[in-house]
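Q: Could you fold this chain for me?
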Amino acid sequence: MSRKLISFDWAIKRLLRSKSNHEVLEGFLSELLKTDVSIIEVLESESNQETAQDKFNRVDLKIKNSQQEVIIIEIQYDSELDYFQRILYASSKAIIEHQEKGEAYQNIVKVISINILYFNLGEGDDYIYRGTTRFKGLHEGDELQLTSGQKRLFAKEAPHTIFPEYYLIRVNKFNNVAKDSLDEWIYFLKNEEIKENFKAKGLKKAKAVLDVMKLSETERLAYERYMENKSYNASMYQSTYVTGHLNGRLEGIKEGREEGIKEGIKEGKIEMARAMKKEGESIDKIIKYTQLSEQQIESL
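A: Sure. Below is the predicted structure, expressed as structure tokens.
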């Protein structure tokens, strides 16, 4: 019988950063990108924190593979209407961070943004979407290609291989039927367990590394606190912010003006702040979660 394993988002912050455990991430990335991936470096970023505020980080993990490409992995549980803009910002920031001042544009790093989502972003029937930048002719309908000289200079075969690449994995849309090795990984991401017959790259190592029973007492307690915090955050978000935002959206539609939507968002934040104050949360934490000012919070 399969045993429940450590959630992937916690593991990525605490366990999988270790070089000895890179096999797990390499396996996942190899299955998703359909090519063997070798991690040469885990890159530091503002996201590499291990606090209760992890939900505000913009990137869970940033690595560089053997092709010198930067791969961003982000895991998101709470629905965000502007998430498309968020991943655009993260990939753009990664490009700037890894471009030396005065360096030729031809050396701009390729960024691959992988987003593991536990909510339904957008409308669509699939559970994995890939986005690339391609240039199509308005009249002829052809796709613009690189010249032979550009291919040699950039070491690229097509324009879309220069631009950021995006993967959206909508875990909740997966029907739990693993038809191939990538699906085996998606099954694990959704259910936090690995079946005995799964053969995908990295899963055997993941099963050994992510066994809750093998954690030290300190790590186990930290994991339990993390999961409790995540449940609390999800409950707070759903019961206050989402409800307030939805009410505001309906009001905005009803009255035909943008102010109604904005007012609903503000009311959702206020309701969240009230609930957090009632739970005895600190002012600093409430500010982090609601973006309200200290004066606004104290007046509630």
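A (continued): The chain is about 45% helix and 10% strand.
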